Amino acid sequence: MYGEVSRTVGIIRDHTTDLIQNKIDQTEEIAARWKIWRAEKQQRLTEDRGEGVSSIAVFTELNMQAPDNAVMCVDVGNNAYSFGRYFESQHQSFLMSGYLGSIGFALPAFIGAWAAVGDSRPIIAFAGDVGLCQYLADFTTLVKYKIPVKLVILNNNELGKIKKEQRAGGWDKWATDLVNPDFASYAECCGGLGISVTKKSELAAAMTKLMKHDGPGLLEVKTDTKLI
Question: pLDDT tens digits for 99-113?
Answer without folding.
Answer: 666 777 888 888 999
